[in-house]
Amino acid sequence: MKNVTIMGAGYVGLPTAAHWASQHNVTVYDPFNDKIKCVKGTIEGKNDNYIHEKGLDEKLRNNKSRLIFTSSLENALENPDFVFIAVGTPPNNKGRADLSYVAQAASDIGKVINKDCIVVNKSTVPPGTAYLVEEKINDELKKRGEQYNISVGSCPEFMAEGTAMENLRTPDRIVFGCDNPKALDALTNFFLYQHDRSRLVPMRTVSSELTKYAANSMLASRLSFMNELSILCDEIGADVKEIERGIGLDFRIGKKFLKAGFGYGGSCFGKDTMAISQFGRLSGVDLGVINAAIKANGDVVDHFFQKIRQHYAGNLSGRNLAIWGVGFKAGTDDLRDSRSVELVKRLERDGANLVVYDPVPMALTNFNQLGLANCVTCNEQYDTALEKIDGIVIGNEAMSFRDPDISKLTVMRNKVIFDGKNCVVEPALNDLRENGFIYKSMGKDIMAACVDKNKLVRFLEEEYMS
Ligand code: UDX
């Protein structure tokens, strides 16, 4: 059993703490006392947690005897073997990761640490940040006239929101890096408490830092590839879902992260692609593929927006639309870089009135805080489908959107569904068709019979047979 301190009780720090406390003594430090109070209250069953993550609260309660939450630095850093930094690195106005919270955490460690330990950065950062952390800690130690043996490494987190607890329990791999071989061994032994050696990927510090950006940018590029392809599918009457299957079964490609839609969102893909693009540029390397992925992610939202707009003859003014799903994906309250919110803003700017629903109540609370005009939130999915509604826009792939109760939708004054995530399942699509609904999606609009076969043939004759 080790003593672990986690700096930062956010989407990464809190689930990680809950998970590791099955085996170790874990102290979580966060300077915001409100968060500390809230999570303590959650453990005692007094209030809801401040983040919505499946299985988190239960894990916190089960492991409460090995968990300490504090906003006192001295208490947090009393006797750690490992200190993990898990603070935010939000993009700044230049699209670069803001390292000030990481630097602050490093200085805080240097100010109060009283023993040798290993400091590991879990926040997503540009390569080289571990060296910066080391310098910040040593600067503070020097000021105090103290000298401890502190190695700094990196261990990027790959858990996805909504499945964080499962990802922590059974990760595909654990990537970690440290240039000091002894510290790397100590980290290996730490992870061996919970995971098989075959899952561990020890490496140099900068490689580990870059691996996080590389993984997210690879997935984001893959999605942008599919999302762009869906636009071409709309054009020629192909079905992107069929293509997903057609290429996904090629084991070299695989089935995951091929689902086309109106763009990827969340706290990582947008931020990390932008950050690595900037980092490449500043290092004199033009990362053309990643830049193209970023551009495509903007273009697909525009494509979906135009599709909705065109349906109403280019005029959204006074149109009442129901928005189903504002979380950046299903099952989260997180609106960071949510494509749905981006779309809502555009629809609203164009004069539409919006009734917004999400199955995660906290997502609606967060949405209300955005203070957008012409938007009301609604706690019931089918209250959005009132007689005055001109169309439903599906913004994430929540379970209840995939197979909607069509009998409750027939009251809509305009029977149209825009499925930005291609998530409505086949039997429900048939029902929609039979009930006179128009269904529009990203790359499978064949159902809307908008494809002109003759046009395609004439185009081939003209362009390919001369
Ligand atoms: C991501 C990475 O998956 C995780 O490993 C990393 O460490 C943090 O960032 P997360 O942001 O929680 O996790 O969400 P993820 O499930 O990866 O989805 C990201 C976006 O891609 C969402 O907007 C989702 O809707 C979209 N997506 C995902 C698709 O559009 N199609 C897919 O097939 C898969």
Explain what the structure shows:
This protein is an alpha/beta fold. The protein is 43% helix and 13% strand. The protein contains 17 helices and 14 strands. The chain has a 6-stranded parallel β-sheet with strand order 3-2-1-4-5-6, sandwiched between helices. α14 links the parallel β10 and β11. It is globular, with a radius of gyration of 25 Å. The mean pLDDT is 94. It binds uridine-5'-diphosphate-xylopyranose. Uridine-5'-diphosphate-xylopyranose binds next to α9.
Spell out the key features of this protein.
binds uridine-5'-diphosphate-xylopyranose; alpha/beta
> Shape from CA axes?
globular
The low-confidence runs, each spanning 5 or more residues with pLDDT under 50, are: none
Main beta sheet: 6 strands, parallel
User: Which strand order does the major sheet show?
Assistant: 3-2-1-4-5-6
Helix fraction? 40-55%
Mean pLDDT: 94
Query: What fraction strand?
Result: 5-15%
Coarse structural class = alpha/beta
Distance between the termini: 75 Å
Ligands in the model, by name, code or SMILES, are:
uridine-5'-diphosphate-xylopyranose
Helix count, DSSP H or I runs of 4 or more residues: 17
Rg (C-alpha, Å): 25 Å
The beta-strand count equals 14
